[in-house]
């Protein structure tokens, strides 16, 4: 199958398993997938395990290739990972950092083609005005956008983006989701985004994967799987899924519910 298959994935830290025997429905190429769930349920752990940056067992297949036993360096040719932390400030120009990201995992493009590809990417992301500015002179949101360009320039088969909109204002949030969706479709890649903004996920993503303390809570078309009951189980909130005037689903979060007390075993 062209796309991503994850079966029986177990990952954690030391002896503590965070993800236990996790299987996802097949995620076909061209899909934009929202990875959602409460703080600490293992979204980043899953992204890092898929990137090969975290010890894990289980079966991972990308475009029909079993990559379960490939290390991070081997996977880097097909997979690009954008961590939750913003790119470090450096005296390099934004353009140079994107060029360097491509050198780390060569795309095989001739220098002139590569320059053209980077210029196009800066244009698609509306980042031309930042290209010749030093990274340590950019704002947090601007650095987050350059970090995204560093990942996209590699044209990966699987994009793993950990909260790529966390530092961005409303316009740039939309710009990121629109661009990643467009590029994912054009290149037939899969993009897996850990994201807390459930309404952005609803608006743009083809699939939703909801993790909870006990593993996978739901997976499927966002509009079909999200309801009040799932919001309660996933986040411990009272909430509603309603339709806006344009027909899109929207989550309205009403109130945090008390955390259920565990029964005292004694
Ligand atoms: N380096 C680490 N060593 C030990 N435990 C860790 C480490 N990183 C994360 N954890 C634990 O693993 C669990 C899952 O963390 P993870 O960062 O994957 O969650 P998350 O769903 O991405 O959370 P958030 O939404 O807050 O970013 C948490 O209980 C966390 O405390």
Folded structure, characterized:
This protein is of the alpha/beta class and 266 residues long. It is built from nine helices and 13 strands. The chain has a six-stranded mixed beta sheet with strand order 7-8-9-4-10-11, with helices on both faces. Strands 1, 2, 3, 5 and 6 form a five-stranded antiparallel beta sheet that branches. The termini are far apart. The mean pLDDT is 94. Bound molecules: adenosine-5'-triphosphate. Adenosine-5'-triphosphate binds at residues 13, 18, 37, 39-45, 194.
What is the structure about, briefly put?
Keywords: ATP-binding, Cell membrane, Ion transport, Iron, Iron transport, Membrane, Nucleotide-binding, Transport. The chain is an alpha/beta fold and 266 residues long.
SSE blueprint and pairings:
Blueprint: E1 3-13, E2 16-22, E3 27-28, E4 32-37, H1 43-51, E5 56-62, E6 65-66, H2 72-75, E7 79-82, H3 94-104, H4 111-124, H5 140-152, E8 158-162, H6 170-187, E9 190-194, H7 198-204, E10 207-212, E11 215-220, H8 222-225, H9 228-235, E12 237-243, E13 249-256
Parallel strand pairs: 4-9, 4-10, 7-8, 8-9
Antiparallel strand pairs: 1-2, 1-3, 1-5, 5-6, 10-11, 12-13
Helix pairs in contact: 3-5
The structure holds adenosine-5'-triphosphate (ATP).
């Amino acid at each position: 199958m062209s796309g991503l298959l994850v079966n029986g994935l177990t990952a954690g830290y030391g002896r503590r398993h965070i993800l236990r025997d996790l299987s996802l429905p097949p995620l076909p190429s061209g899909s934009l997938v929202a990875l959602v769930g409460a703080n600490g349920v293992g979204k980043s752990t899953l992204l890092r395990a898929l990137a090969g940056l975290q010890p894990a067992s289980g079966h991972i297949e990308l475009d029909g290739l079993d990559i379960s036993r490939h290390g991070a360096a081997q996977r880097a040719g097909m997979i690009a990972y954008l961590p939750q932390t913003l790119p470090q400030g450096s005296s390099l120009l934004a353009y140079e950092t994107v060029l360097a990201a491509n050198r780390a995992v060569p795309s095989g493009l001739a220098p002139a083609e590569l320059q053209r590809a980077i210029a196009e990417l800066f244009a698609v992301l509306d980042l031309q005005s930042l290209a010749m500015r030093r990274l340590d002179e950019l704002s947090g949101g601007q650095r987050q956008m350059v970090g995204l360009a560093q990942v996209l320039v590699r044209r990966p088969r699987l994009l793993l983006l950990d909260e790529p909109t966390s530092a961005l204002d409303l316009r740039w949030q939309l710009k990121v989701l629109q661009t990643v969706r467009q590029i994912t479709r054009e290149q037939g890649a899969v993009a897996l985004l850990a994201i807390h903004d459930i309404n952005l996920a609803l608006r743009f993503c083809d699939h939703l994967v909801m993790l909870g303390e006990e593993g996978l809570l739901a997976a499927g078309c966002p509009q079909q799987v999200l309801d009040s009951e799932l919001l309660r189980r996933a986040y411990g909130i009272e909430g509603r899924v309603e339709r806006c005037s344009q027909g899109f689903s929207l989550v309205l979060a009403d109130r945090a519910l008390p955390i259920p007390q565990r029964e005292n075993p004694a």
